[in-house]
Write a structure and sequence with these properties.
- 28% of the residues lie in helices and 27% in strands.
- It is of the alpha+beta class.
- The protein folds into 3 domains: 66 residues, 2-Layer Sandwich (Uridine Diphospho-n-acetylenolpyruvylglucosamine Reductase, domain 2); 111 residues, Uridine Diphospho-n-acetylenolpyruvylglucosamine Reductase, domain 3 (2-Layer Sandwich), CATH 3.30.465; 70 residues, no CATH class.
- The protein is globular and about 50 Å long.
- The termini are far apart.
- The N terminus is likely disordered.
- The structure holds flavin-adenine dinucleotide.
- The site of flavin-adenine dinucleotide has 28 residues, from strand 5, helix 2, helix 6, helix 7 and strand 11.
């Protein structure tokens, strides 16, 4: 484990931007087991650090940070003929440029390439996006429309799958997201409503449709069914969305 900043926990690390970050220990595990052991001791995990560092500048002061940058197992993308698995530590750029993702689920690669800008895509990770609990972030909404699962490693061992749209309500280390039969899903996204919501629609080969609506709360709203109706909306944007969504979904269906 390395130590970042001055030796006294009370001291603050200065930065060029004028923000000051409280002293913390920096651990660089190289395996999932090492990461889980550090989490058992109270470490906070860090993907690309885009959100976490901002929160530290705003006063969050974790005692120990476990950087996932050396945990190669968490960056892996694999397809076994049935399920596409994308490691929590994979960057957005990795998802959109990966040859397997492009081969088995080109819609996902294309949609993922629209996340953030070049710098954000090079640094931000799938896990960090899902776990940051920011309603405007897109990973949970996109993955919910794919019917994806988020698979967590518990600090006491074992793996736990949860619906990707609910990942943020789960504790533990996010290992990967799993998308079953990606070749049978067509994905469309509508980003222009962004001030209100993000809409992603998954059309499955068996006729199922999943519509996920993000940006309105902690978790995306998810509707499953032939008609893909959006669940009852409330809040200040409800009237506008209720009026615009049916037309938008129809347009997305027609492609
Ligand atoms: C200028 C800017 C523009 C952006 N534009 C977009 C956009 O258009 N669309 C979009 O979707 N997003 C956007 N983002 C968000 C970006 O995509 C990043 O994904 C996001 O900031 C978090 O990624 P990270 O790896 O840096 O997370 P981190 O800061 O490392 O972590 C965020 C949180 O997740 C937790 N965490 C990280 N990895 C794991 C794990 N494996 N298991 C459990 N918990 C974990 C951390 O503890 C922390 O609480 C933008 C961000 C910025 C700064």
């Amino acid at each position: 484990m390395t130590t970042a900043g001055p030796s006294s926990p009370a001291e603050l690390v200065g930065s060029h931007s004028g923000f000051r970050i409280a002293h913390f220990e920096l651990a660089r595990p190289s395996t999932v087991d090492e990461t889980l052991a550090l989490m058992r001791e109270g470490a906070t995990v860090m993907g690309g650090g885009l959100d976490l560092v901002d929160r530290m500048k705003a006063g969050l002061s974790p005692r120990c940070i476990a950087s996932l940058s050396r945990v190669e197992a968490l960056k892996a993308v694999s397809f076994d003929g049935q399920t596409l698995r994308i490691g929590a530590g994979a960057t957005h750029r990795c998802v959109s440029s990966d040859t397997q993702v492009n081969a088995v689920f080109p819609d996902l690669a294309r949609i993922w390439s629209g996340i953030g800008n070049v710098r954000i895509r090079a640094r931000g990770t799938v896990g960090g996006n899902l776990m940051a609990a920011m309603p405007a972030y897109e990973a949970a909404t996109i993955l919910a429309a794919c019917g994806a699962e988020a698979v967590f490693g518990d600090v006491d061992g074992g793996a736990r799958p949860v619906p990707a749209g609910k990942a943020v309500d789960t504790s533990g280390l996010l290992l990967h997201v799993a998308i079953a039969e990606p070749g049978k899903i067509r994905l469309s996204i509508y980003r222009s409503l962004r001030d209100y919501a993000l809409v992603v629609r998954g059309d499955f080969a068996d006729g199922r449709v999943i519509v996920a609506l993000g940006g309105l709360g902690r978790n995306p709203l998810v509707a499953v069914g032939d008609k893909a109706e959006i669940p009852a909306l409330s809040g200040s944007h409800a009237d506008y969305l209720s009026a615009v969504l049916p037309r938008l979904l129809e347009r997305m269906r027609r492609g």
